[in-house]
Amino acid sequence: MTSKTVAQLETTGEEKVEPLRVLVVDDNASVLRFLLSAFTANHCQVTTAATAEQALAVLGDDPFDLVVSDIKMPGLSGLDLLRAIKGKQPGTPVVLITGVPSVNSAVFGLRHGAYDYLPKPFSIAEVNELVQRLRRDRVEGNGNVTYPAGLTAELERRQGGVEVMSGIGELALAGLDPSVFIEKVLEKTIQSLHGDAAVVLIRDQDGQFQTNQMGQPEIVSELVTLLHGHFGDVVMTGGRETFTLTPRAHGFEALAALIPGVADSMGILCMARAARAGAFLPDEKALLLGYAQTTAVALQKIVLRENLEKTLIDTISSFVIALESKDPYLKGHSARVSLYAGELAKVMGLPPSDIVLHGRAGLLHDLGKLVMLDNILRKPRQLTDEEFELIRSHPVVGDKILKPLRFLACEAKAVRHHHERYDGKGYPDGLAGEGIPLIARVVTVADSFDAMTSDRPYRAKRPIEAALEEIHRNASTQFDPAMAKAFVTIPMGRLEQISRHLDLHSAPLPGAPLSVAR
Predict the structure, then answer these.
(1) Among candidate residues 283, 340, 321, 296, the one with its CA nearest the CA of residue 153
(2) Among residues 22, 237, 414, 434, which is most buried (max CB within 10 A)?
(3) Phi-psi category of 203—alpha, beta or left, where left has phi over 0 and alpha has psi -120 to 50?
(4) Is 251 a residue whose pLDDT tops 60?
(5) Cβ(259)–Cβ(289) under 8 Å?
(6) CATH entry 3.40.50.2300 includes domain 6-140
(7) pLDDT higher than threshold 70 for residue 225
(8) pLDDT classification of 466: cutoffs 50, 70, 90
(9) Using N-to-C axis directions, what is the helix angle for 394-402 and 385-392, rounded to 10°?
(10) CA distance 85 to 79
């Protein structure tokens, strides 16, 4: 492409240019208006945001062709936005706007995946050149505009977060003293969220406070003071969101999450990180909430000496249900598979304890998918080879998460093998026939039936009768013929009832009989 602008090309008819979707982020209204005008003149469809938080809200599953962001803004900075975008949409080019004092930050951004930076003051000519260079790179395949081999930051954080929650639940099985347990929680939280200090503050029924702490002493001391002053504010969140304890001007950012209902007590899990390390991103805030809630469940069982194995199962199951509830296509899937698997086990004549076991396996079967990126799970178009292989890895990932929990060894078999086929053409291990564990063969039928009778991003749901016919047609190839034969004997009324099961809060608790009419 020559140095002519897009507007000139359109006027002369030399070349037809596809519009670029551009997101511009700056807290300075005049700069925002200037960039809107400059990019629009270059045949771009421009969306504007005054803060990085607003920008994250408009970033959907369909990536922008370019994001241009100021570095220094209130709240999340441009570098924080860069980190978030590279975690969710690593192929999106990001250009940072910087003043002279922020050149070091711009260089830092380039090292962490920024496409380029615009030094202030910049001109229309510089914007024109940026757009033209981006268009050339898109055509030639240069620059940071292609989908990279590897889904890194957010994927790693989410998988690590699931493992931490499982680890917290596993600690509850070790019979630890509550103070030792909390110390282990602090250690896992600091490691997972790359924090510099962490505190758990618990207020007992008499209003007395107990503090456990870890990390840099000077930060810990200030955190304890802040927590005492804002205890009521954190309680007011109800555990639905994190509470920011201090502005980043203090040299660190601190977040607090409610640990609800520990017996007759109430607690807070607080994490702090030096400002130079970057602000907490939305998915990191969600993980902190998850750690606090998991800690609450585990502490309740430790303090009350209840069934600790059930504690961990409840924790993992609640996490599965909570994450699925955010996706209209996945909402209720695992709960329904649990019910279908329990019904199939019942019509097969299995004892009540095995019915519970098979239902629990159905609830956990897609545990590995919870670390996958949402834009892949919801993608309505054909997956790339890399995306397809990532999705196919979820049985192995789920098995890995459950492997340390020996009392869930039977359920882990269903998690790993529910995509095996009776004819041996499935994955991940290519098992065939009765070489596939019985519990996995049960969950395979239940999972496939719910997939067929539920809406998906790429197709509408099928009628129950058509799905039953498909189960029958694929007996001896995809499904164990005995399982397929037994499944079609489940009363139609019960299948219809389960297929409408979307109220996740009414899902049976793992360990509760699945045969109870509802």
Answers:
(1) 283
(2) 414
(3) beta
(4) yes
(5) no
(6) yes
(7) yes
(8) very high
(9) 30
(10) 10
Q: Cα separation of 311 and 301, whole Å?
A: 7
User: In a 3-state reduction of DSSP, which class is residue 511?
Assistant: coil
- Domain ranges for the chain, please list them: 6-140, 153-306, 327-506
Q: How many residues does the chain have?
A: 518
pLDDT for 110 equals 58
Query: Can you list the positions of beta strands (E) in 59-206?
Result: 66-70, 94-98, 116-119, 197-203
Q: What is the mean pLDDT of residues 84-106?
A: 73
Per residue in 165-174, pLDDT (tens digit) is 878 877 877 7
Contacts of 167 (CB under 8 A, 6+ apart): 188, 404
Domain 153-306: assigned CATH number: 3.30.450.40
CATH topology of domain 327-506: Hypothetical protein af1432 (1.10.3210)
**Token reading at 512:** 């509760």
φ, ψ at 496 (rounded to 5°): -65, -40
pLDDT of residue 174: 73
- To 5 degrees, how large is the angle CA 136–CA 142–CA 143? 100
The sheet carrying 66-70 orders its strands as 44-49, 20-25, 66-70, 94-98, 116-119
Task: Give the separation between CA 422 and CA 474, rounded to whole angstroms.
Answer: 10
Q: Which two tokens stand for residue 5?
A: 């602008």
pLDDT at 311 exceeding the cut of 70: no
- Which CA distances in Å does 367 have to 364, 400, 476? 5, 10, 27
Q: Which pTM was predicted?
A: 0.47
